[in-house]
Amino acid sequence: MQILSHSKFNDSRDRREQGLQNLLDRLVKTMQRDELVRQTTNQLREFLQVDRVVLYYFYSQWQGQVTFESLSCKEFSIIGSTGCDNCFNSDYAGLYLGGRVKAIADIELEPIQPCHRDFLRSIQVRANLVIPIVIPKGLWGLLVAHHCQGPHHWSPSDIEMMQIGAQTLKTDRNILES
Questions:
Q1: I need a surface site. Which of 27, 118, 131, 136 has the fewest CB within 10 A?
Q2: How far is Cα 25 from Cα 61, in angstroms, rounded to an integer?
Q3: What pLDDT does 30 receive?
Q4: pLDDT for position 20
Q5: For residue 110, with 0-12 CB atoms within 10 Å meaning exposed, 13-18 middle and 19 or more buried, which class applies?
Q6: The model's pTM
Q7: Quick one: pLDDT at residue 1?
Q8: pLDDT tens-digit map of 29-71
Q9: 30 vs 73, residue with greater confidence
């Protein structure tokens, strides 16, 4: 009887330890992923000299939210924003899944849907640059630069730098596994 009890005790302890190790491994991966995203958004905002760079993460099919942001000042924060549900649909998602890059120098002059323009105004955007983050599982997120204080011309090097940022994120093993 004692051997059986001792064996059950060891099995229970081993399962508990394995569960704790799995939890610790997930926490470490999440922290590493989050730090990479934080560094990427900060570096891009500084390079582009814009008011905000955000990561819009898709947690389910075409549903997501801003999970990271780098800001020139805290008044530009949109953390947690879920975007405009009426405007972002499977048509737009399909374009971004196909690698669409969208650069808008001035939302007031760009021929965009009125709901999209209204949404961008509501979050203080005057110019934006959107780069998809596509992993083998699909559209993981959007890397977005916003200039809020006025129009902003996006140079080829701006677009290239954002694409490098998206490439960095989409090839990270912690993102690929998320």
A1: 136
A2: 27
A3: 78
A4: 84
A5: middle
A6: 0.85
A7: 47
A8: 878 888 999 999 999 999 999 999 999 998 887 788 999 999 9
A9: 73
- Three-state SS letters, 13-77: HHHHHHHHHHHHHHHHHHHHHHHHHHHHHHHHHHHHCCCEEEEEEEEECCEEEEEEEEECCHHHC
Phi, psi of 124 (to 5 degrees): 65, 25
| In contact, 140 and 58? CB cutoff 8 Å | yes
**Tens-place pLDDT, residues 87-110:** 666 677 889 989 999 999 999 999
Residue 146 contacts residue 122 (beta carbons within 8 Å): no
Helix, strand, coil percent content, the chain, rounded in steps of 5 = 50, 20, 30
- In the numeric block, which tokens belong to residue 89? 């649909």
Cα-only R_g, the chain: 21
Residue with tokens 């008011």: 51
**Other Cβ atoms closer than 10 A to 101:** 15
Q: Which of 100, 102, 145 is nearest to 126 (CA)?
A: 145
Query: Distance (Å, rounded) from C-alpha 95 to C-alpha 103?
Result: 14
